[in-house]
Amino acid sequence: MKAVAYNIKEYEKESLAVANGKAHDLTLISNPLNSNTIHYAYGKEVVVVSEDDLLDGKLLEELRHIGVQKIVTRSIATDHIDLSRAYDLGIQIANTPYADRTPKGIAEQTIRNLNLWGDGKCVGGACCCAKECEIVNGKLRYDGAK
């Protein structure tokens, strides 16, 4: 999958690179996601954010307009993302809910989500979508708006 990860701290870079293992076209940038940095998401299917990135309805609309279909937050909390608006726009959301909160653990959870989505599968306990996904002809189908 083509993804860009925003708000990457220096201590996160190696963990994400190792966890990714060149499986995905993953761009790591230190800038937060906002209207001034959204251009880094052009041509990407997924954006990866931190809990410091505030994704309100307007920013979600901009992301969807440029083709972003999925968002992974490197946090347990999702209150920094307007989940209702994401659902309306057909954007799937995943978090990193597992107990290992080390940079390595969060990186592995983030890449696991990308791997599952890339294989057309549900991210299971990391799913934060407002509506259930379903499997149609062996592939995951998200029933959000298009």
Automatic annotation (TrEMBL):
Residues 7-100 form the D-isomer specific 2-hydroxyacid dehydrogenase catalytic domain. Signal peptide: none annotated. Keywords: NAD. Pfam families: 2-Hacid_dh. GO terms for molecular function: D-lactate dehydrogenase (NAD+) activity; NAD binding. This is Lactate dehydrogenase. It comes from Sphingobacterium gobiense. The lineage of its organism: Bacteria, Pseudomonadati, Bacteroidota, Sphingobacteriia, Sphingobacteriales.
